[in-house]
Each structure stands twice: as structure tokens, then as C-alpha cells.
Amino acid sequence: METEYHAEEENEELFEHHRLHADKGQKPLRVDKFLGNLLPNTSRNKIQQAAAAGNIHVNGRPVKSNYKVKADDVVQVVLAYPPREIELIPENIPLQVVHEDHEVIVINKEAGMVVHPGYGHYSGTLVNALLHHFQNLPEASHETRPGLVHRLDKDTSGILVIAATDFAMAHLAKQFFDRSTDRTYWALVWGDVKEERGTITGNIARSLKNRKVFEVAEERGKHAVTHYRVLERFGYTTLVECKLETGRTHQIRVHMKHLGHPLFNDKDYGGDAILKGTTFTKYKQFVANCFSTCPRQALHAKTLAFEHPTQKTRLSFDSALPEDMAGLIEKWRGYAQHKLE
């Protein structure tokens, strides 16, 4: 039996991809039992939901859970992340719910909120809040990421979709895996971006010098593509819209730094220093005031579009800029206008 396992642990999407090659002695066996035998941490119900969502392929074609795996078949499946050993506690934390139905929940996440529990963050997360506000999220009693199929960095604000059922989780995970969702972000970056629009392509891998951050690496990491366009220019900074083709951890932050334009006030990637401008004291005071206005990287998940798991309609959501980032942009807009007068 040949087995390949790809857990997408270094991207913002929360799914895993298994590729299993049945050996020549494989006797006919239902695909849900076949996968259940080889993936002991995955429930049969979860596997069946994946099949119903079209997430199980044999020899490149989608199959139902009753398909009989035969010798030399290649089975591929996309699932949500496996169980983790962290206790989840519901917490009464306010949430800004943009949309809710039986299958999906759309949240406008505040900056500063960690999405799911992990090392150093065992409470106060979006997941803790979700467990209080919503019942029976898929795998809520076992996983640290119930309902999650993608995520946002702690200090990134904006739109996030949550799966309310096992079927929705499987269906949405497949959409993120197939890159059929549409996501745009607004970012304020240092410098005057040269081109009006462009595409950044570069593998993203953990930094060899600092494991907490990532970098563009030719020979390492995962393929990543970011499309961008300029929305407004302020001289020493630029407001850009970024559209994700892939979803890697810190993708926009890493790609914009690679382009020579780190995000404004991005402490991890050097954006919390004055990178462009003058040496005048008044300018330094102005930038310091801007840092105080938006004390985090200036990045907001502006829009998200996906296919509803059961209604099969395209849902699109747009979120207003939060107060800190809107105030920051207004300050730079005023500075640029004053400078031109």
C-alpha cells in the first residue's frame, strides 16, 4: 500500500489531502471502509460526508461512499483537520455575525482575536466564542477547529466563513482546495507601488533564521500566488487590494515584503519602522501617531465569495474597514493632500 499524506499546516485553509494507492492484492472494499481502515483518526461519518460533497476521487473521478476500491486504484480525499488534544470551552465572547443559516455562518472577525486554540492561546479565541453562540458545529467535541475551513491571522480583521454541518465543512473545504472561492484583502503598504496591478508568485516557507515568520524561497515551501491592484496612493504609502489565488500562512504579508512594500505596522515583517518619507520631526510624529491609530498590521479581509453547500447559489460578502484601519487611511489621505497643496 502506497500512502501520501499532505496536511496543509502552513496555510490559512484548514484541510488535509490524502492520496492512497491500493496494492495489487486489494480485494473489493467500500471506499468509506477502505479509508476508515487507513485513517484511524477519522470517523466514518466524516468520510461519508466527504463523499457526498464530492471530495473523494478514485482514479481522478468523484465516487460515492459505496464505491468498491479495487487493486491499483488511486484514492484521493480532502478532509477537515484531524482531532487535536486540547479541551474546548465555550465562552460568551461577542461576535459580529454577518450571515447565518443551517449550513454556514459568516463572521466579521475583529483584529486581535486568535481564530482557534493553540500553544499560548487556550481561551478567548473565535472557536471558544463559536461554541457558546452556536450548537452542534461539526466535530466540536473533538477538534480544536470546529467548523473552520480557513483562518485569519490574529491581527488581521475581516470576513471568515464557518461550516455549521459536516456536509458544509466537507463542501467548503473542497472549494478552498479547488481555489473556487474568491477572497480580496485591503492592505496599506509602505512605499509607492510602481505598477497599477500585478501578480506575485513565489514559494512560501518558514524562515530558516526565525521559525515564527515566513519568507519567499525558491527551493522550499509551498506554491503561492497573490494578485494585487493599487486602490489609492499617498506618496509614502499605498492602499492596495490583494486577491488570493492560494492561501498560505502570512501570504500577503510575505509577498508584499518580497515586492519591497511591507505592510504598514507589520511588526513581524519590518513594517513597524519608518521605511519611507522624510527626516523631519513632524513627519516622524505623524507616523508615530499613525502607528498608535492602527496598532497592528494594516490588513483587512474585505470580501469573500463561495458556493452555498446545499442551495448551490453563489454567496458574496463585503465588510467595511474597521475603525482603526479606516482612521489610518484617512490620516494618510489628509497627509498626501496637504503635501500636494
Molecular structure report:
This protein is an alpha+beta fold and 341 residues long. It folds into three domains: 2-80, Structural Genomics Hypothetical 15.5 Kd Protein In mrcA-pckA Intergenic Region, Chain A, CATH 3.10.290.10; 97-178, Pseudouridine synthase, CATH 3.30.2350; 182-340, 2-Layer Sandwich (Pseudouridine synthase). Helices cover 23% and strands 28% of the residues. It is built from seven helices and 18 strands. The strands form four sheets. Strands 8, 9, 10, 11, 12, 15, 16, 17 and 18 form a nine-stranded mixed sheet that branches. Strands 1-2-7-4-5 form a five-stranded antiparallel sheet. Strands 3-6 form a two-stranded antiparallel sheet. Strand 1 and strand 2 form a beta hairpin. The longest helix has 18 residues, at 323-340. The chain is elongated, with a radius of gyration of 22 Å. Residues 2-11 have low confidence and may be disordered.
- Just name the CATH architecture of the largest domain: 2-Layer Sandwich
Coarse structural class: alpha+beta
Low-confidence stretches: 2-11
Radius of gyration: 22 Å
In percent, how helical is the residue content? 10-25%
Mean pLDDT, all residues: 87
Helix/strand order: EEEHHEEEEEEHEHEEEEEEHHEEH
Please give the largest β-sheet.
9 strands, mixed
This entry's quaternary arrangement is single chain
> Could you name the CATH class of the largest domain?
Alpha Beta
Strand tally is 18
Number of helices: 7
- Overall, the morphology is elongated
**End-to-end C-alpha gap:** 72 Å
- Fourth-tier CATH superfamily name of the largest domain: Pseudouridine synthase
How many structurally independent domains? 3
What fold name stands as the CATH topology of the largest domain? Answer: Pseudouridine synthase
**Strand content bin:** 25-35%
